[in-house]
What we know:
CATH class of the largest domain: Alpha Beta
Number of helices: 9
Number of domains: 2
CATH topology of the largest domain: D-amino Acid Aminotransferase, Chain A, domain 2
Mean pLDDT: 94
Shape: globular
Distance between the termini: 16 Å
Helix content: 25-40%
Radius of gyration: 18 Å
Strand content: 25-35%
Amino acid sequence: MSDSPMVIPGSGELTPVDRGLLYGEGVFETLHLRPDGPWLLDAHLNRLATSAAVLDLPLPPRPELAELATRAAAAWTGGEGALRLIVTPATVYATVTAVPATARRERRDGIRLITANSGIVARPPWSLAGAKTLSYAENLAARRWAQRQGADDVLWLRADGQALEAPTASLIWLAGDTLCTVPAGETGILPGTTAAHLLARAPELGLRTEERMISAAALATTDAIWLASSLRGLAEARALDGAARPPSTWTSRLLNLLGFTTP
């Protein structure tokens, strides 16, 4: 498996004057590649369109994007893969690469999660937080900051202590028999495709579901905590702000429900 992304032949080409490169004015989606093709393709194309609308960014017709994703998946023969669709004002292109070893390890072993106050009280009307844009440097910087603190990832909190999301993942938690996540519409955070799919299917395992807010203090008392994302699937928080947490028997069941394996 290659660690270097392969640009799909026939897709577009980024140029030095593209506003996507100069200003991060573009959108993208990352999809998990499986033997039967890109996972949750329709949901990702829906979110791509929503993100593009926030930037007033024209998209190619949806069938063309779907065809590009299918062609990219067919070009990948390296096992579990990651497909990225990128749209800028000047071009559309796709890349494929192996799922990072870090993502597979966190799916298997869990993560050490810490919380951090984002300082956000209310987002301004021009906020891009609910769109998946190429302006991703702050998200990656937040993860690097967490790693310097001895953790694997960070959970952003609102100024009032309510939990929001991680830089590259949605928050999921289990309270009794209810699987919960943070409401994207109420908070302006990015709607999670994996989280939405999981909550839609959770009743198959006898779980109830709910979208609601939760404080960091209340989160620490829940039965289980996960970060949900396209490539990790679920990564269980095995420590929160330095306090160890016992493994949940639900992790493997939920991963199986999502079609992920834990090597």
